[in-house]
Amino acid sequence: MRGPLARLLTFAALLALAACAGTPAGTADRTTAEHPGFGSCARTVQAAWPGDENREKRAHELATCLERGTALQVAVADRP
Prior knowledge:
The protein is mainly α. The chain has 4 helices and no strands. 66% of the residues lie in helices and 0% in strands. Helix 3 packs antiparallel against helix 4. The longest helix has 18 residues, at 4-21. The model is unreliable at 71-79 (pLDDT under 50).
């Protein structure tokens, strides 16, 4: 899933994260540029913890990705 749909989903995830964090959308683009693993992390987090009820879990996992500076290694099947 490396085509336009993947890029669109990544952008949507970053845009949603920026909106939730109260930051401008340009900040999300800069975050992706500064942390190359963040795009794949965002896709993994969105797939692993969908829906509004998991919003806090997603925010925590995305923050963890930024702290480590690496992609999150979580399979969708691994979630509880």
